[in-house]
Amino acid sequence: MASTAKNDGGIVETIKTVVYALLIAGVFRTLFFQPFWIPSGSMKDTLLIGDFLFVNKMAYGYSRYSCPFSACPFDGRLFFSEPERGDVVVFRHPVNGSDFIKRLIGLPGDTVQMRAGVVYLNGTAVPQEAAGQFSELYEQQGPMGQLPRCENGPVGQGDICTKSKSRETLPGGRTHDVLNIDTNGAGDNTDVFTVPAGHYFFMGDNRDNSQDSRFVQAVGGVGFVPADHLIGRADRIMFSSAGRSMLYFWTWRSDRFFKAVE
């Protein structure tokens, strides 16, 4: 009889430990950091397919999208801090509910336009300086098996795929790399966008391979992103793997471990 009670007590303690662990993990994920895998090449070469990072959810305060399954029971944002131009931000897509990661280019009230692949902010060209080339193998990348787009294409499987790289300097002095395939792509020449109050304008660093605020939501783009859809800021890459699975240790990119996101 005593043995049965002891066993029952052990099961109860195990269940309690699991419940407490889940609660702690839920609080941690809700209030502090959210794990995020990079699934696509839209932010190359800042972020590569297979990069793993934690998103800083404290950076901009909290909205209902801060909770798993969008379960936070409030509208708007709590403890809101305005994001800065140039931040790399994870946000909830306004239509399809997916989590996206892009760079913040336009703040509320800004005008944004693309002309021949150059960003014009409030009527002034954002400076770009040639920075060589970005090279990678033309092969399937990540669990989704995506093939990269190449400026020197078409190239064969296993050959070198290249894109022109420029160093872009935003107002305020923040710099980052952008990639270019051509200057006549769908997002290289646009109308003037005026960012509404309470919204933001995002673009991918891989400019010719990014569905972002340059494209309307109805055709798969992002459009303007409301402030309450911001989830957090990407600050540092924790782990990176170039393979189809993180278990393929020979494909790990150790040079990207703990790398700051610029």
Query: Which structural category fits the helices and strands?
Result: mainly beta
Kindly give the count of domains.
1
Tell me which CATH architecture applies here: Ribbon
- CATH topology heading: Umud Fragment, subunit A
Q: Whole-number average pLDDT?
A: 87
Characterization of this structure:
The structure is a single chain. This protein is mainly beta. The chain has one domain (32-260): Umud Fragment, subunit A (Ribbon). The chain is built from 1 helix and 15 strands. It has one helix spanning 2-31; strands at residues 33-37, 51-56, 88-92, 99-106, 111-115, 118-121, 124-125, 128-137, 160-169, 175-180, 193-194, 199-203, 225-226, 230-240, 259-260. It is globular and about 60 Å long. The mean pLDDT is 87. One of its GO terms (molecular function) is serine-type endopeptidase activity. Pfam families: Peptidase_S26. The active site is at 42, 102. The chain crosses the membrane at residues 18-38.
Spell out the key features of this protein:
single chain, 262 residues, mainly beta, Umud Fragment, subunit A, eight-stranded antiparallel β-sheet, four-stranded antiparallel β-sheet, globular
Question: What can be said about this structure in brief?
Answer:
By secondary structure, this protein is mainly beta. The chain has one helix at 2-31, and strands spanning 33-37, 51-56, 88-92, 99-106, 111-115, 118-121, 124-125, 128-137, 160-169, 175-180, 193-194, 199-203, 225-226, 230-240, 259-260.
